[in-house]
Design a protein that fits this description.
Number of domains: 1
Structural class: alpha/beta
CATH class: Alpha Beta
CATH architecture: 2-Layer Sandwich
Shape: elongated
CATH superfamily: 6-pyruvoyl tetrahydropterin synthase/QueD
Helix content: 25-40%
Strand content: 35-45%
Distance between the termini: 14 Å
CATH topology: Tetrahydropterin Synthase, Chain A
Radius of gyration: 17 Å
Number of helices: 3
């Protein structure tokens, strides 16, 4: 089995979590998120690669642009508190289906990469791993079999 890893995708973001227990994380706070992407394949393609690093870097840039300097909140929280009334002009708000935890952000990134691989008709990749660092010491990973 072969693997390649693209390190240090990153974006600055703020979020808050709608939790069922008291937590400081229920307040708006920010992070310097970083993520690594690892792709696995059983064999190399006709160019003797798993996937072109340049194309992978372009996908990483798309992810960074979507989330960088944004406030990320869940759809439920958005609807519950009518965030439209609270957002200052030109704020970048990203509304996602679930709580913006490190685990769920890793999942969103992995799902986006999977979609891009499907669009490019890449079939040789068998597994995709995204590790998302919410802080320097805390990360969450998701592994998807393709």
């Amino acid at each position: 089995m072969y693997k390649i890893t693209r390190y240090n995708g990153n974006f600055e973001y703020s979020h808050l979590l709608d939790l069922d227990y008291p937590s400081k994380c229920s307040n708006v706070h920010g992070h310097s998120g970083k993520f690594n992407i690892t792709l696995y394949a059983d064999k190399l393609d006709s160019n003797y690669m798993i996937f072109d690093f340049k194309i992978l870097s372009e996908i990483v840039k798309e992810i960074e642009d979507k989330f960088d300097h944004s406030l990320i909140i869940s759809k439920l929280f958005y609807e519950k508190y009518k965030f439209d009334d609270l957002i200052v002009n030109k704020s970048k708000l990203v509304v996602i289906d679930h709580n913006p935890t490190a685990e769920y952000l890793a999942t969103l990134i992995a799902d986006y990469i999977k979609l891009k691989l499907e669009e490019k008709k890449i079939v040789s990749i068998t597994k995709l791993v995204v590790e998302f660092f919410e802080t320097e010491n805390n990360s969450a990973s998701v592994m998807i079999t393709l």
